[in-house]
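Show me any protein, keeping tokens residue-aligned.
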Amino acid sequence: MPPRRRNRAGTQAQLNEAARLADRLQHAGYTKRDIARIIDRDPSLVSQFYTKNKGAAFVPALREVLTAIETGGITDLPELTAIAARRITRRTTASGSRARVRGKAVLITPTGTGTGRVAAQAIASGSARLRPLIAEAARQGLRLAFTVRLAKTAYLHPSGSRTDSPGVRRDVTQRADHTEERSYGSAQTGGFDAADFARRVDATGGDVTAAVRQWLVETERIRPDAQILHLEIRTWRPR
């Protein structure tokens, strides 16, 4: 029996309006991650336009964004995000009050202290859940540091080397599985400007893993083919 062919026209007809608009944006060269950034939501929500019939609240914003692209020639993501924000409103309950929605998993204390960690599976997909932490730290003008774990052979300098960022062994953790954790930046050394790091993340399309790895390669701390196995981001308010 010959294989059944998928009826693309039929599938397209079954998509809700949000999914159809998302398809048009993808045909215009934007990824689902780009669309999520434009509507200021997690990329998983965009996928749910197709799988769970979600997205009705974002239809006006997506329509206006498409108009800006197709007739206004606007392509810059921050500009498109600002355009979408004008048309995105919170849902209301039956009584007319604003519905509660699940916020981003970002917790930064009044002192600016915040921490986010990811392991292998999240790292492989770009450590997306660390991006809101970095973005919020940038918004608040915080400082930032990070810890990475790689195979010992992936580092270009021996642990404790002053050429590398730690400089002293207390910022290095060696593990029995032949991996090693190294910390870059601290309150004592001043750390990194979160805004600068947020720009690096934006430049990689929101891929936090790629942004960290690129910095480590550019500053000649790890081998170009090295793979990050664990990543932790820490923030604090500068004095």
